Please model this.
Amino acid sequence: MRALILAPFSDDQLQRLRRRIDVAYESWLDSNTIQDPEELGARLQREEIAALVVEADFVFEEVFDAAPCLRLVGVCRNALNQVDIKSATAHGVAVTHAPGRNTNAVAEMALGFMLALARRIPEAHHLVSGGGWADPSMGYRTLRGREISGSTVGIVGFGQIGREVARTCIALGAHVLAHDPLVPPRQIEALGARVASLAEVAERSDFVTLHVPDIDATQRMIDDSFLAQMGPGAYLINTSGGNVIDTAALVAALESGRIAGAALDVFEGHPLPQSHPLMSAPNVLLTPHIGGATAETVERHSRMMAGEIERLLDDQPLLHVVNPDYKLARAR
Model:
């Protein structure tokens, strides 16, 4: 059996797999290349690849059509929009993924944004590094912040990441409001948070942090109306999907002082051009989609994918398969 891994992968998990099978490792982060689907399909056929692991590459119908030896596609993410699941199932190929691989990383990123905004850390750094700290008491006069403890944190989206953010904020002494119509209220309350409507989250939160999937139902859910309900001392944080916020409305809210600030790790398109309105908006922190960019995230998805490939080798049930009906096509 041969495997092709196009995702970043930890050395120890590579060695784990190589003790049993032939593995070609070409992380897209090293090559800075996304594979052409037709060329990828031809390669899988030529090299008789049985297991393909991706993070950023697309696995469309033409890949499955061209690769009769393919038995498993592992996606090192929770989302599966880059794989044609229907075609995989029809070709008898299992599709597995890595749910929760970056839960802790993104939750910590959201908390880091809260602390940076609340304590005005970037401004404080620029004051010192720019030579503007001429008076010992200047920071106390101009950079007074607020504490997370005692604040109200509104969490929109109460999946794995939203729940981890809630646990952390509650541990720091914050009051947590949670909005997610798909989660039973008892599950929210069991963590010590309180169920709230979207309007209540906007009106009552000192920090609003977004943790919803980037799907049609969430497109621009944070709009003029939502931002108008937020208090002038409130902050907005987005580590979920770039299309969840109406960017023009956010820029207007920042420029008018309608809200105190925002921190964004995701955008409607990226990289951001220098001419983008967010680049000159006041009181905004911008990071280049690094919420899940930790060594621990790579280790987690590597361990999950290595385990799934070993289970395939041993003819054991896959733990994270999303199309169990693939077995029907494989049996024909």
Summary: The longest strand covers residues 152-156. The chain has a mean pLDDT of 96. The two ends are 21 Å apart (CA to CA). The CA atoms of residues 60 and 200 lie 42 Å apart.
